[in-house]
Fold:
Amino acid sequence: MSSSEQYKRQIMNDLASGNVESFDDVPADPATEYQNFDDFAQRSTRDERRQLFGRSLHPETIPVSQMEPELQKAIAQIQPQDRDDVAREFFKRLKERGLSDRQLEQQLSLSSHHPNHMSADDVSKLAGFAYHSHPDIFQEVLADKPAIMKFLGNPVVAAVFGIMAAKWLSGRRAP
Structure:
């Protein structure tokens, strides 16, 4: 059994048994109980999203080989304007690391370095590069632009939603 399968099984077992002790450092505030992912994306703070995504969205947790196809599917489903915003955000943050948009266009074989001219496949390549080479940037962009998360379907990524659900439900438990 692969390590990602073991990890997924452990998360699912923990969630099924109500074990949310690893989330004790995230305070359960009744004002932040969310009804669904869209509610979470709209009302949660950037720091809260960053903390939750940062725990699970990392190549050591979800291998690049599993994440990249999911990113392709997810990015293809988001609105073109949101996709442009995601690309802009990746370019901006990668530029801060010394990688120019033109350099990334060449290195990743993108059709353009202009976010509004990029295809979903281009944005997927950019996101995959960030996930593999700069996971902290990937997590930051998702914290700023959480729309991608709702379209990820990988069972391991679904565990991220389980983690969020456990956090949300932890405030609803009877004393």
About this structure: The CA atoms of residues 27 and 167 lie 9 Å apart.
